[in-house]
Specification:
Structural class: mainly alpha
Order of helices and strands: HHHHHHHHHH
Largest sheet: none
Number of domains: 1
Shape: globular
Distance between the termini: 26 Å
Number of helices: 10
Helix content: over 70%
Strand content: under 5%
Radius of gyration: 18 Å
């Protein structure tokens, strides 16, 4: 593993840059915060795990050349982009359609841990800009002496995903601490439902309108 990582000065630069990028909110962070607000820290952590796995899938895809395909094929990029946008909008509509009261004070119908993990995975994976981000960002910290550039790309991608997961965990814990208030207060509970739905639909629209340009920003 040591042979796959760059020398310490370059590695520290990578860790610092990754930390700055990881704390910048993106679609994954919005999903994690929304799930944590609605269902608490436990479910927020499930969304963190799903988003991390989806991001790692994109890191592996970038190492295998998927990002290069997206960069040269507008059709491939567009298909994946609209799949992700449609899924986000679908999640937003489902949140808006959830019962306002449910069974009395339970609020919006809760989702299971497995469903939240799956949704987080798809939110991250169905964002083609993430793979392009990895393809643009990781080579800046790769070394010619690495035994395998593909393996080094995966190793650096995994390290970035770990850093992002730590940042996402902080978001989930902070938002989860507000969840009990949302459950107790009906007005805030309804506001949370509308905020969640609007956030997902907004993210879906932004994803649909996005292009590969500016893909070096945090996914």
């Amino acid at each position: 593993m040591h042979d796959l990582l760059p020398p310490w000065p370059l590695l520290w630069a990578f860790i610092l840059a990754s930390t700055v990028l990881a704390v910048t909110p993106g679609p994954g962070v919005f999903y994690i915060v929304a799930r944590s607000l609605l269902q608490g820290r436990r479910h927020g952590m499930a969304s963190v795990a799903g988003v991390a796995l989806g991001n790692f899938g994109n890191a592996v895809g970038a190492a295998l050349g998927l990002a290069a395909l997206f960069a040269v094929s507008s059709v491939a990029f567009t298909v994946v982009k609209y799949l992700g946008a449609a899924y986000l909008i679908h999640m937003g509509i489902q949140a808006l359609r959830a019962p306002a009261d449910g069974a009395g004070a339970e609020g919006p119908q809760p989702q299971g841990i497995g469903r939240i993990f799956r949704d987080g995975f798809l939110v991250a994976l169905l964002n083609p800009k993430t793979a392009i981000f990895f393809a643009a960002f990781l080579p800046q910290f790769m070394t010619p002496q690495a035994p395998s550039h593909a393996a080094q790309s995966v190793a650096l991608g995994a390290l970035f995903v770990l850093i992002a997961a730590i940042s996402d965990t902080a978001y989930a814990l902070a938002a989860g601490s507000v969840a009990p208030v949302l459950k107790r207060v009906g007005g805030l509970r309804r506001a949370g439902r509308w905020l969640t739905g609007a956030a997902f639909i907004g993210l879906g629209v932004l994803t649909a309108l996005s292009s590969a340009r500016g893909s070096t920003k945090q996914p």
